[in-house]
Amino acid sequence: MILAGILQSVEFYVMAAVVAAMIVALCARSDSPGPVREILLAGVISRESDVRGDDSDPRIELICNDDGSVLLRRHGVRGVNETGAVSLAIEVKGFDVKIRERVVTGRGDGEPVDTASFILDFMAREHYFISYVSDSTPFATSQTASLTLSNRPGNRVEKRLI
């Protein structure tokens, strides 16, 4: 008799509808944020320590531009001369961005450089979770940094590599 009373109440049907909606939402949820994109970028290397007057610590600086692109500057590059190169292998999965730096020291006795600049033109005006890994060179070990970036014009984020 009590069981029949529960099945006829409005509360029972509201709870049943909520449970059914939760099951449908769980079944419709996507497990993956989408395909992974890989982007390879070559950097523009320069020497800034003479201009600024200091030997900068290894760090990255991200500056959001008005057109939606992001300027990434890698300061404190060591062991690279003007015949070398710094490049990035970027993996984008949804709003997670994994950046791996690749360094070529160069040949001969060229002028040393300490900064590499990159334009990231694939980012929308969203909130990104970025991890940056600098591969080891013969002169240093791997260094990493993790940060969040809200791509809004004028936004600037700086993070030391540890």
Helix/strand structural class: alpha+beta
Shape: elongated
Tell me, rounded to a whole number, the average pLDDT. Answer: 89
Order of helices and strands: HHEEHEEEEEEEE
> What strand line-up does the widest sheet have?
1-5-6-8-9
N- to C-terminal distance: 69 Å
β-strand number: 10
> How many individual helices?
3
Low-confidence stretches: none
Query: Level of helix content?
Result: 10-25%
How large, in whole angstroms, is the Cα Rg?
A: 25 Å
**Range of strand content:** over 45%
Quick one: biggest sheet? 5 strands, mixed
Explain this structure to me?
By secondary structure, the chain is of the alpha+beta class. The protein contains 3 helices and 10 strands; from the N terminus they run H-H-E-E-H-E-E-E-E-E-E-E-E. It has helices spanning 2-7, 10-28, 49-52; strands at residues 37-42, 44-46, 59-64, 70-81, 85-93, 96-104, 112-120, 127-134, 143-150, 156-160. The strands form 2 sheets. Strands 1-5-6-8-9 form a 5-stranded mixed beta sheet, with no helix packed on it. A 5-stranded antiparallel beta sheet has the order 2-7-4-3-10, with no helix packed on it.
Q: What can be said about this structure in brief?
A:
By secondary structure, this protein is α+β, with helices and mostly antiparallel strands. It has helices at 2-7, 10-28, 49-52; strands spanning 37-42, 44-46, 59-64, 70-81, 85-93, 96-104, 112-120, 127-134, 143-150, 156-160.
Features:
five-stranded antiparallel beta sheet, 162 residues, five-stranded mixed beta sheet, elongated
